[in-house]
Amino acid sequence: MDTNYILAVLQKLALIAPGFLLAITVHEFTHGYVAYRLGDPTAKMAGRLTFNPISHLDLFGTLVLVLTQMIGWAKPVPVDPRYLQNPRKDMIWISLGGPAANMITATLLAVLLHILVGVWGGPRSGPGGAFFLRPLFLILAYGVQINVVLAIFNLIPVPPLDGSSILAGLLPRAQAYEYEKLQPYGFIILMLLIFTGVINYVIMPPIEFVTRLLLSGLG
């Protein structure tokens, strides 16, 4: 394999790894924290109420990140609905917590990036500007994109994504019961949507819109 290609891949992984680790950490932590505030201590007892990314890493999800250089996932935080006073409504808030945390994180990273560019003049401003900060700019930009992707991707209403729990909580009980019968086939459905490209038509427009909105004016 070409050495330059390997070095380019390693360089990109080094740039996206911080954003990926931050994204999965805030996502899973928030799921667990919302569940904890609603009465479910399962995530806390499992040691998942932590900002240590190692506690949230999934081996296969990390391998997919290495292969795709953009997409990956973490271990789902355990939730036990038996602890919840209103499981249907509470699961909506728990499921929304992860994507909401990612959108907030993306916004904060974008604000930080705009501030740095405003102060230093941007990575393309030449030797007298912020050229030496280019790796940091790229890490922040990738962090924005990864958090937006993770938030919107997880809102797809296909098990085991967060959107499925949100939809199940919003549907009337009879329809929710029928909908939840899809859960054993959710991963297969999701893979079919991904490999046929259908999912790109659904999520790429909002991902591109939000990312452009957050990074507008940065060049």
Question: What descriptive keywords fit this protein?
Answer:
219 residues, 9 helices, 68% helix, single chain, 0% strand, mainly alpha
Kindly describe this structure.
It contains nine helices and no strands. With 219 residues, the chain is an all-alpha fold. Helix 1 packs across helix 4, helix 4 packs antiparallel against helix 5 and helix 6 runs antiparallel to helix 7. The longest helix has 35 residues.
Short description:
With 219 residues, the protein is mostly helical. It has helices spanning 3-37, 42-45, 59-68, 87-120, 134-154, 162-170, 173-179, 186-195, 198-215. The protein is built from 9 helices and no strands.
Strand and helix map with partners:
Elements: H1 3-37, H2 42-45, H3 59-68, H4 87-120, H5 134-154, H6 162-170, H7 173-179, H8 186-195, H9 198-215
Specify the structural class.
Answer: mainly alpha
Order of helices and strands: HHHHHHHHH
Low-confidence stretches: none
Strand content: under 5%
Helix content: 55-70%
Rough shape? globular
- Secondary structure tally: strands: 0
Radius of gyration: 19 Å
Determine the N-to-C terminus distance: 33 Å
